[in-house]
């Protein structure tokens, strides 16, 4: 069983309604302290706090307008008061909002205005202090640092959101391209199935047509020849039907792009086992092979040859994947029996790690081999080999 993937749920985010209520709570929370201080600080200070904090309700939808509204309220404070108000906390929130939700140029403008506002506020609040220059410098740095931090957080949030949006767009594009590739692959597979079926059915039907024409002419002069010819027609039809069924079973598990070859390439068979073994040796495996003589394979159906080839191919692939280094492999393919008992016998064994090899739980090789062999009514056995290693053996009726 494959290892379950870790929890990949996206982080929770507020929806439009949740964001709206959040902004309302922010404004209410900032204004609540101004209510009991209405009589102690005076109506002017409290009213300015309302004008400074109130626009934050629209900071997401209209960040630039909100920033300038808050700026105007703070400018009025400089003209009317010489001391801070509770509404000063609206300034960093407005700077953050314009940097987060507006274009970068507006964020830079807000930062520049913040620098001027910090100096202006520091001068306004420091009038009459014992050490005016030091007080102005200290207040200007403190106010400017708060505004700069708000701008930096807003800019970081905006760039991160842009990055996430780009990833989402890229993911959507990849999914669309993958769907297109699947559609193209399905079209190629349908075309390949049509060609495979044409080769099987057309060959059988052409033989049937020729034999049927011969039987029709022979029926007038030699009924015995006509009878034998009709037997041949029936046998050819049954063979074509059987081969068609086998081909459909094979095509169900075939990949349209195996080995990256051209679509019109012939399917491999027993004659291609030499090349398969040579390829395994080139890859570094020590392979000893005993393959059937070409004369012994005469009359073996193409589907049977293809299945034997695929069994050897998958077994060698499993050796490379699971048996470990410096493995000796023995491949034996033979045609045994005669008549109805004729069969292709395949045996691939190695002296590697065998069943002790680590398995990721996702392999379908043995299942695929059993399905291929089962299409032809054959049997397949696979398991640890006595003395170490692994053995795959199959018997495919020919």
From TrEMBL:
It comes from the Bacteria. Its main location: cytoplasm. It is an enzyme of class 2 (transferase). Its EC number is 2.7.13.3. InterPro entries: DUF7134, HATPase_C_sf, HATPase_dom, His_kinase_dom, Sensor_HK_TwoCompSys, Sig_transdc_His_kin-like_C, Sig_transdc_His_kin_sub3_dim/P. SUPFAM superfamilies: ATPase domain of HSP90 chaperone/DNA topoisomerase II/histidine kinase. Keywords: 4Fe-4S, ATP-binding, Cytoplasm, Iron, Iron-sulfur, Kinase, Metal-binding, Nucleotide-binding, Phosphoprotein, Transferase, Two-component regulatory system. GO terms for cellular component: cytoplasm; membrane. The keyword Metal-binding applies. It catalyses: ATP + protein L-histidine = ADP + protein N-phospho-L-histidine. Its cofactor is [4Fe-4S] cluster. One of its GO terms (molecular function) is 4 iron, 4 sulfur cluster binding. Coiled coil: none annotated. It is found in: Cytoplasm. The keyword Nucleotide-binding applies. Member of the two-component regulatory system NreB/NreC involved in the control of dissimilatory nitrate/nitrite reduction in response to oxygen. NreB functions as a direct oxygen sensor histidine kinase which is autophosphorylated, in the absence of oxygen, probably at the conserved histidine residue, and transfers its phosphate group probably to a conserved aspartate residue of NreC. NreB/NreC activates the expression of the nitrate (narGHJI) and nitrite (nir) reductase operons, as well as the putative nitrate transporter gene narT. This is Oxygen sensor histidine kinase NreB.
């Amino acid at each position: 069983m494959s290892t379950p993937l870790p929890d990949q749920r996206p982080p929770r985010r507020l929806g439009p309604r949740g964001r709206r209520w959040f902004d309302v709570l922010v404004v209410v929370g900032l204004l609540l302290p101004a209510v009991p201080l209405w009589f102690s600080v005076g109506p002017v200070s409290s009213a300015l706090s309302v004008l400074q904090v109130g626009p934050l309700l629209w900071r997401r939808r209209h960040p630039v307008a909100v920033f300038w509204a808050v700026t105007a309220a703070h400018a009025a404070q400089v003209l009317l008061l010489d001391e801070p108000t509770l509404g000063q906390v609206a300034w960093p929130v407005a700077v953050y909002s314009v940097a987060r939700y507006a274009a970068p140029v507006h964020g830079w403008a807000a930062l520049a205005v913040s620098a001027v506002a910090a100096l202006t506020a520091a001068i306004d609040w420091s009038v009459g202090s014992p050490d005016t220059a030091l007080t102005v410098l200290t207040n200007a740095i403190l106010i400017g640092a708060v505004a700069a931090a708000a701008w930096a957080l807003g800019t970081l949030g905006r760039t991160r959101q842009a990055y996430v949006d780009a990833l989402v767009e890229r993911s959507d594009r990849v999914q669309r391209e993958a769907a297109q590739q699947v559609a193209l692959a399905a079209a190629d597979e349908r075309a390949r199935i049509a060609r495979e079926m044409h080769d099987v059915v057309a060959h059988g039907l052409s033989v049937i047509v020729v034999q049927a024409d011969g039987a029709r002419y022979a029926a007038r002069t030699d009924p015995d020849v006509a009878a034998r010819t009709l037997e041949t027609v029936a046998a050819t039809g049954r063979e074509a039907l059987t081969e068609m069924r086998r081909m459909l079973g094979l095509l169900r598990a075939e990949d349209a792009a195996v080995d990256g070859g051209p679509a019109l390439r012939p399917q491999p068979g027993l004659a291609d086992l030499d090349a398969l073994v040579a390829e395994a040796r080139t890859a570094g495996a020590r392979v000893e092979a005993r393959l059937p003589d070409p004369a012994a394979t005469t009359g073996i159906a193409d589907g049977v040859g293809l299945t034997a080839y695929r069994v050897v191919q998958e077994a060698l692939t499993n050796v490379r994947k699971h048996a470990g280094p410096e493995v000796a492999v023995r491949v034996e393919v033979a045609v045994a029996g005669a008549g109805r008992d004729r069969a292709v016998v395949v045996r691939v064994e190695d002296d590697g790690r065998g069943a002790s090899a680590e398995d990721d739980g996702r392999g379908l090789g043995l299942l695929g081999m059993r399905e291929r062999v089962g299409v032809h009514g054959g049997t397949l056995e696979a398991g640890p080999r006595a003395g170490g290693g692994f053995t795959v053996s199959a018997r495919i009726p020919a």
